[in-house]
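Deviation from plan, reported transparently: pyridoxal-5'-phosphate complex.
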Amino acid sequence: MTKCIDEKELLALEAKYCSYGDTVHYIDPPKLFERCDGSWLYDVQDRPYLDLQMWYSAVNFGYRNSEIAAAHDEQMSRMPQLACQYLNKEKILLATEIATETEKRFGMKGRVHFNVGGAQAVEDSMKLIRNFRNGKSLMFAFMGGYHGRTLGCSEITSSYRYRRRYGHFGSRASFIPYPYCYRCFYGLKRESCGYECVNQFEKLFETEYYGVLDPKAKETEFAAFYVEPIQATGGYIAPPPEYFSKLDKILKRYNILLVDDEIQMGFYRTGKLWAMEHFGVKPDVITFAKSLTNGLNPLSGVWAKEEMITPEIFPAGSTHSTFSSNPLGTAAGLATMQYIKRHDLETSVREKGEYLLNRIRELQARHTVIGDVDGVGLAIRIEMTKADGFAPDKALADKIVDEAMKGDIEVKGKKYGLVLDIGGHYKNAFTLAPALTISYEEMDLFIELFEALLKRCGV
Ligand SMILES: Cc1ncc(COP(=O)(O)O)c(C=O)c1O
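Because the crystal trials were delayed, the predicted structure below was used instead.
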């Protein structure tokens, strides 16, 4: 940012010249930041903000992670630009890393296809599926799921809010209740529900009159089920342990592909390369983006099992974007995969996640407005409620975010801000995604800051 223009002037220019349509202004006025490092953002007055959100999990390995940045910088000084019809070794090695690491985990051969943003990867996955299923275009997806905001992705993202002003483009998904057990769609309790949500899904295939299956042709109208392994924007909600294996049995029976959208939960957010590894099922397609480059360059991709993506089935030109496998992005992506191999993230993320979750549970015991706390690895949810511990309290969550952004919470004589994001079906859940490199001292500081914010909000 140019130093000679002050914050007030910049915000005035923003109000005049920037579209608001390409972003989400949760706070008013929007916040300006000047620099970042590790788990920290610094505003124009150089006040530190502990980031528990890390660019919606696009910076899992910490701001300006030197090991990943070094590869990006080396590429910048050697060959930062190259048309994607030619090859650079980083693209080939990155695809090789992702394909071989995925094969190790799921035992399936496949190939990798690159693009730029998360939504574009999801769009490409839809093309792969429609192509493989001879143009079949109907999808299942979850209530509360989020897969991006292009016209195509909005059709499989449940919120009508994202479609309301644009009409339809293609086929709107059939949205199935997500296993959000704290607020079960069917009003049941996890201990005794017998996976009623899966039973209800299975029921759709019972008779042709439920509009899903032609029993005579033994064929469904649906090509794929798009899932997030842990619902992300929906509020960092993990399904119960056997949910996906039970669902997958039904999908296999009816030849419906399972698409695993790892855009937010991939790259060790949950302590695994792919969060779906926690649930013992093998996806047919995986989409990924965000932390692939640790946020240094927009790069995304799709992994698909071999039979869906061979050069015969999906030849050159099936889809294309100018910047798809650009050298800076693929160099950063390759460095990310190498970083993952050098550091035992499986252990450290599990241990840090357990520590942070336990500390938040201690807070929950002291504050009845913390209704639900849960997490897998370092994907942790805190759901804010009224004092009854259940009625959603969006206003309280919003107030906490506003106060956290002021940058003036005092702990041991020093002032801090806190970067938090709100998600969830009722927009009352903090979706905590700290840097996987966060220290134990920083996690303790978060607890102090969060408790100070609760006190400030009078709860
Ligand atoms: C699970 C999931 N899928 C897709 C997307 C869309 O990615 P992008 O915003 O890069 O288009 C997101 C973004 O938050 C996401 O969380």
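The mean pLDDT is 96. We consider this an acceptable substitute for the interim report.
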